[in-house]
Amino acid sequence: MRRILIVSIFYIVCFNGTAQNDSLVNRLEEVVIQADKKLKKHSVGYKVITLSDSVILRNTESFTSLLRFNSPLYLREYGSGGTSSASFRGTSASNTAVIWNGININSINNGQTGFNSLTVSLFDAIDVRSGGGSLEYGSGAVGGTIHLSDHLQFTNTKQIKNQLKASLGSFETYRGLYKFKFSNSKLAINSGVSYNQSENDYKFLNTDFKNTNGAYENFGLNASVAYSLTKSSKLKFYSANYLGERFFSGELPNPLSANDKYQDFSHRNLLVYTLEKPRLSHEAKFAFLTQEYRYFEDRTLSTFNFGKSKRYLVNYNVSYSFPELKASITSYSEYESAFGKTDQITERNRKQFSQSLIYNQNINSLVSFDAKLRKDFNSDYDVPFTYALGIKVKPFRNLFFRANGSKNFRVPTYNDLFWPGQGNLDLIPETALQGEFGIGYKNNQFLIDIGVFYINAKDKIVWTPGGDPDKPGVWVPINLSEVNNKGMEVSLSFNRTFNKHIVKLNMNYSYTVATNKATDNQLIFVPKHLLNGNLGYTHKRFSFFYQQLINGKVYTTESNSNDFVIPHYFVANTGLDYKLLNLQNKQLTIGLKVNNIFNKYYEVQPRRPMPNRNLNFNINYKF
Amino acid sequence: MKINKLISKAFILSALFLASCSDDDSPQLPKGDYENGILISGEGSGAGTGSISFISNDLTTTENLIYKKVNTNELGVYLQSITFDNDRAFIVVDNTNSVTVVDRYTFEDKATITTGLNKPRYMETVDNKGYVTNWGSTADETDDFIAIVDLNTYAVDGTIAVGNGPERIIESNGKLYVSHKGGFGTNNIISVIDLSDNSVETITVGYKPDEIFVNTKGELVVLCGGNESWTGNETIASIVNINMSTNTEVSALTFADGEHPSLMVLDNGMLYYELGGKVYSIDEDATALSSTSIVESQGYLYGMEVKDDKIYLLDADFTDLSELNIYDLSTKNKITTKAIALGASKIYFN
Question: InterPro entries given for it (chain B) (predicted)?
Answer without folding.
Answer: DUF5074, Haem_d1_sf, Host-pathogen_enzymatic-act, WD40/YVTN_repeat-like_dom_sf
